[in-house]
Design goal:
340 residues, TIM Barrel, eight-stranded parallel β-sheet, two-stranded antiparallel ribbon, globular, binds NADP nicotinamide-adenine-dinucleotide phosphate, oxidoreductase, NAD(P)_OxRdtase_dom_sf, Aldo-Keto_reductase, EC 1.1.1.-, Aldo/keto reductase
């Protein structure tokens, strides 16, 4: 184990919110989306993250149909008061077709999902409860109204929204304070900077940056989803990781590699430091949640919370996102960008 210093802290959702590490841990890949993992190593990773001051743990009921929540339950039980536990509702993998997603924001569904997540996680309250995806058939005010009832009932402490647009966030925030907005944000995915990030700055929510390592691509650990990743891996369906796009996008890592080499750090650390610094430019508080099931990587990622890039280094990295080929999802309709 390395002597990685603890990550600094911030407050979730503003000055009165709970204190959390400025980097969280994405737990999705421990059970879902990115191929097989070693459960023992994943459990050790949860523990190591906490030792490093990583206290926001991110899951969702959609991750392996609740299995990811169940996987986390023993860790949560052992550390209930030391961690901030976030989960989500609204998204289900279609049982008939694993590539299809069903999105529901109707009140009965939200209430049932919350009870199911509480049971699977083995807790009596969820610290941060997100709407995972927006169902455009339900007004956002109605969705947040039901989420606010969960707060009033003591089942949820704070509310979050994932993949919402700026106007949706403002409308939601008028109904109940929104502590966190979870959106994809990385050197490869910057579409939220136009409309979402300014609204986050305005409302004072914390921006929880998901896939800050570009789903691993920014670390250089794979260059082509078809060649390097296993059959069921979700990334094999993402346009930017396949075919000619992947080949082109790999070349975009050159400046990341250059900065990493000069600073004696890894590509992933440069990518994580970039998210922290980009947030400062926009005046938002950010908590990236890189996902990993390996202790060595959680140490590496946590260390990036102390890396400060220079203005020249940031300038070198600036053009990357504009040159990426292929969308961040095959179907962008379910993202904030798809509704802007
Ligand atoms: N709200 C949403 O719609 C949404 C969507 C996607 C994800 N999320 C959340 O965000 C979290 C993070 O996103 P993500 O997992 O999609 O993407 P990510 O954090 O950008 O990348 C994760 C991938 O990078 C690898 N990795 C992690 N650290 C590494 C390192 N230091 N060196 C090399 N490879 C490394 C991981 O593999 P190993 O595990 O093998 O280390 C994994 O394959 C998820 O776990 C989930 O909780 C939310």
């Amino acid at each position: 184990m390395t002597n990685t210093p603890r990550v600094p802290t911030t407050r979730l959702g503003g000055p009165t919110g709970p204190e959390i590490g400025v980097q969280g841990l994405g737990c999705m890949g421990m059970s879902f989306a990115y191929g097989p993992t070693d459960a023992g190593e994943a459990r050790a990773t949860l523990e190591r993250a906490l030792e490093l001051g990583v206290t926001l743990y991110d899951t969702a009921d959609a991750y392996a149909n609740g299995e990811n929540e169940e996987f986390l339950a023993p860790f949560v039980a052992a550390h209930r008061d030391e961690i901030t536990l976030a989960t989500k509702f609204a998204l289900t993998v279609d049982p008939e077709d694993s590539t299809r997603r069903i999105i529901r924001n109707d009140p009965a569904h939200i209430r049932a999902c919350a009870d199911d997540s509480l049971r699977r996680l083995g807790v009596d309250v969820i610290d941060l409860y997100y709407m995972h995806r927006r169902d455009v058939n339900v007004p956002i005010e109605e969705t947040v109204g039901v989420m606010a009832e969960l707060v009033a009932a003591g089942k949820v402490k704070q509310l979050g929204l994932s993949e919402v647009t700026g106007p949706e966030l403002r409308a939601a925030h008028a109904v109940h304070p929104i502590a966190a907005v979870q959106s994809e944000w990385s050197l490869f995915s910057r579409d939220i900077e136009a409309g979402v990030v300014p609204a986050v700055a305005e409302t004072g929510a914390t921006l929880v940056a998901y896939s800050p390592l570009g789903r691993g691509f920014l670390t250089g650990s794979f260059t082509s989803a078809e060649k390097d990743l296993t059959e069921g891996d979700f990334r094999r369906r993402q346009p930017r990781f396949t075919g000619d796009n992947a080949q082109h996008n790999t070349t975009l890592l050159d400046p990341v590699r250059e900065v990493a080499r000069a600073r004696g750090v890894t590509l992933g650390q440069v990518a994580l430091a970039w998210v922290q610094q980009r947030a400062r430019v926009h005046g938002v508080s950010v908590v990236p949640i890189p996902g990993t099931s390996r202790r060595t990587r959680v140490e590496e990622n946590a260390a990036a919370a102390h890396l400060l890039l220079s203005a020249d280094e940031l300038a070198l990295l600036e053009p990357i996102a504009g040159q990426v080929r292929g969308g961040r999802y095959a179907d962008m309709a379910f993202t904030s960008a798809g509704r802007e």
